[in-house]
Amino acid sequence: MKRSREEEPMVSIEDLTEEQMENLTEEEIAALLEKADEEENLDAAEVKRMLVHFEKRVSSNQQKRMKYADEPEKFMQTELELHASIKELHKLAATPEVYTEIVSHGSVATLMNLISHENTDITVECIHLISELVDPETILDAENPDILVDALLSNSLVDLLVQNLSRMDEEHEEDQQGVYYTLSVFENLVELRPSLAETFVQSTDLLDWLVARLKIRAVLQNQVYVAELLSILLQSSTANQERFGKLDGGIDLVLRVVARYKKREPKSAEEQELAENCFDILCSCLMVPTNQQIFLDHEGLELMLIMVKEKGFAKRRALKVLNFALKSSPTACDMFVSALGNKSLFAAFMRPGKGAQPELAADEENAISCIAHLLQHAQGEARKRTVLKFSNDDSPKIDRLLELHIKYSHRMKEVDVEHTAERLGALGQEHSEEIVYLAKLDAGLYTLQLVDLVWGLVLFYGRADVAEHTKTLFHQHRLEPTQLISVLEEYLSNLGDDNQQEADASKEKIGQAIRGLLSLVPDPTAAAESGDATPETYAEEAEEDGDATPDTYEEGAED
């Protein structure tokens, strides 16, 4: 998301709506027209004049500084002139077709030298200019955007910016802006070249600075931006997630930030954005198993449970974090059940919160995901207690599974595949099967798959009353076990193999869920002839694998 400061350059007159034009004063219209004329007259000769003028101002300032090093009043005028010259170059940022001129003239190296200029006013204005030059909304209009980006990177832009951050004193407003513009440069570069995210984290001290800055509450706007950049750097890089986990106190710090909202709402939109970014950081970190353990060691699980129980702003964010914390982690799943987490989780499962439809859909997905994790990875008594949640009080939780199955099955029937393919053009025609699957995922297929997985596993591990209640519901709503099995088979066929061990474990659990559903089929012989496993097969395999069988759960405890 692009951020903005209160003071932004004037927009182009072409970007204004008729209503906005009517609200402008005569002076504002005149200024916009003058700006438009200047941009239109920015030909090669004018660009060269501006760059030559800029280089002269830099040279003059350097000479005066060297000659009168102890007499600042004698070089102050050259500082003002240099600052004005840099501001003039902002015109180039709005004209991407002249970016190659900046590179060919050799001005990139000059700009890099100014990042470490003794006068931070000049440094900040230079960084501001660079942030505009690499703004994706502008630079991508250039004939060859890579030319400027390559020139900046080859002239040590990243190292210079990271080094410069250490001298920024946010007690001063100008330095606050300098930090802001520096973060903007990093964000823009990652958007242009996502691979740079790992370069920034693995090859510089940027991550250490960001974590240290996140601790400081002053200048909320910059603290929010720091959290946002951290979220961006971590979201798609395992290496960065691992590096963050190894930082002393990194995960603990983020937990401390979100803990402020366990019982209260954010006081402003900026504060809410800070919290949202920190929850996203946690989700990214928890994709690495070693970070899951750090999260547990710092009582992150207990904190998220408090938030889910409080049902405030943090509830749905905490539920999402729990989804990541429990994934493929027997330790986390067992701790979750021991901490009586099932009570809060199933309350969220049965009674989703309020909000817009996308938010409610996310809540349903995260709740059923957490339950699926518990059924797949909790062990012994913890899994037993989770299964028993579906056997109490006339099985209302089985009714909820039915409700969700019907809801998301209906959505699958409404998927507009043609519209999706049309939106993607030639790509949609070349990969029609993938497009259909992606369109269904967008409509909630993953939630449907998890609902049917949970239902099948509850039948696989559960008591006879669960099977009887399921049969009654199927009869009332004209459902067949094969309909759910079909969903799970599609899920099975689309499992990724990036992590083979995790994929194999998922395949095993999906197979168990299918066998649980097959136990409802009236004629197991027919199922066997069609190549499907029968209930007897499942029982034999479960005993061989050491898994519990339905008889195991005839007696059990409730949270």
Task: Write a concise keyword list for the protein shown above.
single chain, 559 residues, mainly alpha, 35 helices, elongated, disordered C terminus
What is the assembly state of the chains in this entry?
single chain
Shape: elongated
- Please report the total strand number as a whole number: 0
Structural class: mainly alpha
What low-confidence regions span 5 or more consecutive residues with pLDDT below 50? 5-10, 527-546, 548-559
What gyration radius follows from the Cα positions, in whole Å?
30 Å
Main beta sheet: strand number and arrangement?
Answer: none
Helix content: over 70%
Description:
The protein is an all-alpha fold. The protein contains 35 helices and no strands. It has helices at about 20, 25-40, 45-65, 75-90, 90-95, 100-105, 105-115, 120-135, 135-140, 145-155, 155-165, 175-190, 195-205, 205-215, 220-235, 240-245, 250-260, 270-285, 290-295, 300-310, 315-325, 330-340, 340-350, 355-375, 380-390, 395-415, 415-425, 425-430, 430-440, 445-460, 465-475, 480-495, 500-520, 525-530, 535-545.
List the helices and strands and how they pair.
Layout: H1 18-22, H2 26-40, H3 44-67, H4 76-88, H5 90-93, H6 99-104, H7 107-114, H8 120-133, H9 136-139, H10 145-154, H11 157-165, H12 173-192, H13 196-203, H14 206-214, H15 220-234, H16 238-246, H17 250-259, H18 269-285, H19 289-297, H20 300-310, H21 315-326, H22 330-338, H23 341-350, H24 357-377, H25 380-388, H26 396-413, H27 417-424, H28 426-430, H29 432-442, H30 445-461, H31 464-476, H32 481-493, H33 500-518, H34 524-529, H35 535-545
